[in-house]
């Protein structure tokens, strides 16, 4: 069945766990479901940008594994962060050379946090790469990203599932969260305690928007993977793919969104 409905896809942040979004996208595409619009925070914004620029989910996985851009980050001599993201800009340009929202095949909105104003900022036009860097700029770890004399950090701080840009423009919204927490029986060190607390906060942010989604896909147990655990990329991708297939089987009405055209561009 070919759908004429406009489909929005909102992708959460989560570091390397965001690779699960690519598995979910592949599963949706395999079922003929192609989003008309995407929005994302942090890792979700990066996955969304590469997908919207025309790269296949499996190809994006190869790009991320091959690039491993974390190793290119260099120390920042400042009080605001430990690492600088300068080199990452060059890496993005390699795969998104046009560097503009307008050049994307599918419309995209990127969420970031205006650190001085304490508000969410949404980027959907003009230069693309610096908003991507801002959206994935983990506070305290990276220097804030300056755009038009304002300073931005990770979009997930205030909105880790940016469904709002899709409301009113899409008939159906699919939300994807890559930070599902398994039950933990032993929290025996401060590292685990901090990581679990941060993810709980991120998920509260996500779940407060869950009811805005018509469909909500959340691969199980991904929080056991570290934010920078790039060596587990294939497992994370596969977890996203398999979880999405299970979700589709359990929620067959989503197949009504199937569309035969993989390159949909909405005004």
UniProtKB/TrEMBL annotation:
A motif (GXGXXG) lies at residues 13-18. GO terms for molecular function: hydrolase activity. InterPro entries: Acyl_Trfase/lysoPLipase, NTE, PNPLA_dom. Keywords: Hydrolase, Lipid degradation, Lipid metabolism. GO terms for biological process: lipid catabolic process. A motif (GXSXG) lies at residues 40-44. Residues 9-167 form the PNPLA domain. A motif (DGA/G) lies at residues 154-156. The active site is at 42 (nucleophile), 154 (proton acceptor). It comes from the Bacteria. The keyword Phosphoprotein does not apply. PANTHER family: NEUROPATHY TARGET ESTERASE/SWISS CHEESE D.MELANOGASTER (PTHR14226), SLR0060 PROTEIN (PTHR14226:SF78). This is NTE family protein. It comes from Mongoliibacter ruber.
């Amino acid at each position: 069945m070919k759908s004429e409905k406009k489909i929005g896809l909102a992708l959460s942040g989560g570091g390397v766990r965001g690779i699960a979004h690519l598995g979910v996208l592949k599963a949706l595409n395999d079922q003929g479901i192609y989003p008309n619009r995407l929005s994302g925070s942090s890792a979700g914004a990066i996955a969304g940008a590469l997908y919207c620029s025309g790269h296949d989910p499996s190809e994006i996985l190869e790009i991320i594994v091959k690039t491993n851009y974390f190793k290119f980050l260099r120390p920042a001599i400042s009080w605001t962060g430990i690492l600088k993201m300068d080199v990452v800009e060059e890496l993005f340009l390699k795969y998104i050379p046009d560097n503009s929202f307008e050049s994307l095949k599918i419309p995209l909105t990127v969420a970031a946090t205006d650190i001085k104003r304490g508000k969410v900022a949404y980027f959907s036009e003009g230069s693309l790469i610096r908003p991507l860097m801002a959206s994935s700029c983990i506070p305290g770890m990276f220097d804030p990203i300056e755009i038009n004399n304002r300073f931005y950090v990770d979009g997930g701080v205030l909105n880790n599932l940016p469904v709002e840009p899709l409301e009113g423009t899409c008939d159906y919204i699919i939300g994807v969260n890559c930070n599902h927490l398994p039950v933990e029986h032993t929290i025996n060190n401060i590292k685990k305690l901090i990581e679990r607390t941060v993810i709980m906060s991120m998920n509260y942010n996500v779940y407060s928007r869950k009811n805005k989604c018509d469909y909500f896909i959340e691969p199980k147990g991904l929080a056991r993977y570290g934010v920078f655990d790039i060596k587990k990329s294939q497992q994370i991708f596969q977890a996203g793919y398999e979880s999405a297939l299970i979700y589709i089987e359990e929620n067959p009405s989503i197949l009504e969104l199937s569309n035969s055209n993989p390159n949909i561009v909405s005004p």
